[in-house]
């Protein structure tokens, strides 16, 4: 598998992603200073989730609705053209991809913001929102890649380590691994709550 030198756009794109992650960690420390360590890391992920959906995927949806990434101008179009080298569907306003991204930008961002509020203020609906968000994220990933797998991956370029392991596996795998872990956290929290309610002699309201 080839390892071509990184282009300037690739380097700047990776640096931008790093800056987004750093901003998310700083926001989690700022707003979640009194939260548990687990909740601070959860908040960092949620802030990163919102930042990416709004600042990267939001512009992608806009560019795809008014034209295509391939024919658009500007820094964000260049960033998406870089990712489009790994998945060509992002260059041509593929209806399935745009539909999933539109739902992601609007619904997932809103749920993530609501979940941040629920964690910071210890709201009773925290795990309901957390489960809803995680299912949406996992569904989005499935509907993005399952059609490709069923058709033999005609749009995916896995000819280089950068395209395969960084763009396709890492940047998409994060949105599978972390929602799956948060689903497990919600399962455990709801199980503990159920066990507390079933303590012998405990009065139920």
From TrEMBL:
Transport: is it a keyword of this entry?
Answer: no
Transmembrane domains' residue ranges: 97-120, 127-145, 165-184
Localisation: Membrane
Q: Tell me the Gene Ontology biological-process terms attached to this UniProt entry.
A: sterol metabolic process
What PROSITE patterns does its record include? EXPERA
UniProt keyword list? Membrane, Signal, Transmembrane, Transmembrane helix
Alphabetical list of InterPro entries matching this protein: EBP, EXPERA
The highest taxon in the source lineage is Eukaryota
N-terminal signal peptide: 1-21
Q: Which GO terms describe its molecular function?
A: cholestenol delta-isomerase activity
Its cellular-component GO annotations read:
endoplasmic reticulum; membrane
Identify the residues that the record assigns to the EXPERA domain, covering every copy.
38-183
- The answer to keyword Cytoplasm applying to this record is no
Family as reported in the entry's similarity comment? Belongs to the EBP family.
Q: What protein name applies here?
A: EBP like
> What is the organism field in this record?
Myripristis murdjan
